[in-house]
Amino acid sequence: MYTDILLGLQWGDEGKGKIVDYLADKYDIIARFQGGPNAGHTLVIDGVKTVLHTIPSGILKPGIMNVIGNGVVIDPTTLLKEINQLEAKGVEVKKHLLISKRAHLILPTHKILDAASEAAKGAEKIGSTLRGIGPTYMDKTGRNGLRIGDMLEKDFRQRYEKIRDKHLHLLTLYNFDFSLKEIEAQWFESIEQLSSLQFIDAEYYLNNALRSDKKILAEGAQGTMLDIDFGTYPFVTSSNTVTAAACNGLGIAPSKVREVIGIAKAYCTRVGGGPFPTELHDAVGDKIRSQGNEFGATTGRPRRCGWFDLPAMHYACMINGVTQIAITKADVLNNFEQIDVCTAYEIDGKQMQEIPFDMIGKQITPVYKSVEGWQQSLESFKEFSELPAQLTNYMNFLSKELNTPISMLSTGPGREELLVRK
Ligand code: GDP
Ligand code: IMO
Ligand code: MG
First and final CA of the chain: distance in angstroms? Predict the structure, then answer.
């Protein structure tokens, strides 16, 4: 029937997992289209927290199929751990999970190369999640990679060894200590255990589903400002994270796309290095971090915090063709008298609404507009029309500036803590 796409508009961790979980039963299939275990998507159901890294966020809703598309990179060890943790909680994973044969494998040496490259960069490191993402996508585009479907071939071990040996040779360029034996054995053991999963030609499966009137929700990882082309390069991830990537990463044509749901926090965060114009290095930033529990779902690192950035959001809405926005973590700002929103960047004395090609090393001064805080709990509110006037003003201001409707407002981590515009 159609595909809707849900993705992050900032620097990741916008609360995509929570919104996908909420929306999942309106679709037949939830499909991840890029990234890998660098993602950490958190679902909180009846107070119980689940963090998903590679498995789509529809897995906790019964009866829905979850597809890992060709654009995703998969670490068998992480995936197995994730499946085991879910199954221990009684979730029927294997029946509801399908994996594209075309998805690339993260090899143990990809992870070592990631770590070695980061260590060599010293203070200029990207702050990667060390999950092997960059080296795996490099091998994919360099036409050296191994894919999920290759695991079924007789010469898999030889092909693996050839790539591993090349990586070991590359590693001699770095002065980096590592031990491969144990993680390699675990990797092969995980592959063995995963062999009971359903590996499919996902592009056929998804297009057949569309032909038989099924609905697909494509789930993005990371965020637009981490996109390899449009993010704050080189402080980005190694995949395209934008709307177009859902077509590439699943094999679905643009004409089959209906809504593009962009997710953004009511403020901004970023984890790892790189430009972040509205970052707050003061007590206000610390307050957002503590109220929002802003620590990474994958690495546990403290997230950098700052105010909502309209120039970056304008850009994200433009690149993605966003048709509706979900604002998350509004409750984190409950105890602020004043909330600032960056409306422009000032660079070399000039104000601009467009983000510069290269933000690195530029003195960017955010121009702020302040809005009044609502200073009360949002727990009791279930309808947009009942919200405190100050929060309504804030939402109306963002929506008008971005010329896009705000269709959902999240007021807590739990599945039910969500207002949906009728
Ligand atoms: P994702 O990567 O975009 O799925 O987001 P993460 O799961 O990495 O980070 C979002 C964090 O915020 C998680 O800990 C969620 O449980 C939490 N969260 C999501 N929505 C809300 C919200 O509206 N309010 C609060 N306080 N927490 C939220
Ligand atoms: P979700 O899907 C936030 C960041 C890393 C680093 C940069 C490159 O949970 O929103 P990588 O390991 O991809 O090579 O790291 O990208 N990063 C994320 N930040 N949320 C994520 O995913 C991220 N995935 C990668 O911190 O700065
Ligand atoms: Mg996350």
Answer: 22
